[in-house]
């Protein structure tokens, strides 16, 4: 099922707005990360610099080119932003959200232990 993003604004990463809100990082048409920030532009630029080549699990690799645009909506109130972020992550399970990486990593470790690749 294709997600309907028509009710949200879209921009390229370089044009991310300096507003508080929820953002949805996209790789082509795939949703890969959901976040919230008091300044979307600053937070998105941090993703580009800090994540490059740092998370490598299996065949998944998060780099600057892992996302090319974002959908977003403005939300001033921090507790509301955090609640929206949590709800959207639970609903969509983007592959680059931290909890999903932890679950994926634990799954790999468990598989390696079953195959006696690492000691448990």
Which key features would you list for this structure?
120 residues; two-stranded antiparallel sheet; alpha+beta; 36% helix; 24% strand; four-stranded antiparallel β-sheet; single chain; GIY-YIG endonuclease
Q: What can you tell me about this protein's structure?
A:
The chain has 120 residues and is an alpha+beta fold. It has a single domain (9-114), classed as GIY-YIG endonuclease (3-Layer(aba) Sandwich), CATH 3.40.1440.10. Helix content is 36%, strand content 24%. The chain contains three helices and six strands. It has helices at residues 40-50, 78-92, 98-114; strands at residues 9-12, 21-27, 30-37, 56-57, 60-61, 69-74. It has a four-stranded antiparallel sheet with strand order 1-6-2-3. It has a two-stranded antiparallel ribbon with strand order 4-5. Strand 2 and strand 3 form a beta hairpin. It is elongated, with a radius of gyration of 16 Å. Residues 50-59 have low confidence and may be disordered.
Quick description:
This protein is an alpha+beta fold and 120 residues long. Helix content is 36%, strand content 24%.
